[in-house]
Amino acid sequence: MLMSRGKDSEGNEVIRPYTPITLDSDIGYFELVVKMYPKGRMSHHFREMHEGEYLPVKGPKGRLKYKVGQARAFGMIAGGTGITPMFQLTRAILENPKDKTNVHLIYANVTVGDILLKDELDSFATNFPNRFKVYYVLSQPTEVWNGGIGHVSKEMIQMHCPTPAPDIQ
To answer: What pTM was estimated for this model as a whole?
Structure first.
């Protein structure tokens, strides 16, 4: 996680945490996923930025120490912008040819349009069908929807996450 600093519409300092979606092996840059809220204080700062300007950041903070083979599988549950740490770990696992860890992700949002990184997650599911499963849950689905509806439930977790065991996280 990185802490970024900007100014809101009234000129007051705003500090917000973001988890990069890039890996430690991506040398010289990092990428952030930023959800823009109409009245968001940090959103205002990002809207006012122009190409070539700098964004003050500090970090990393709160690093998860992941080691290849740490678990046979991960069961992950994320909602909204909380997807970025899950995405970063999933990417590290799946893009390492030495890592055979399986990842099961339940990702909840309000609408289909709110699903961040959907193309990338769907690509993981396509490219790693035996190692990555994603189950989307929407509280306001469209009429035609194949995923979960409502809020994440005990039954969804039992169906879409690995069964608890000593080698499961």
So the answer is: 0.88
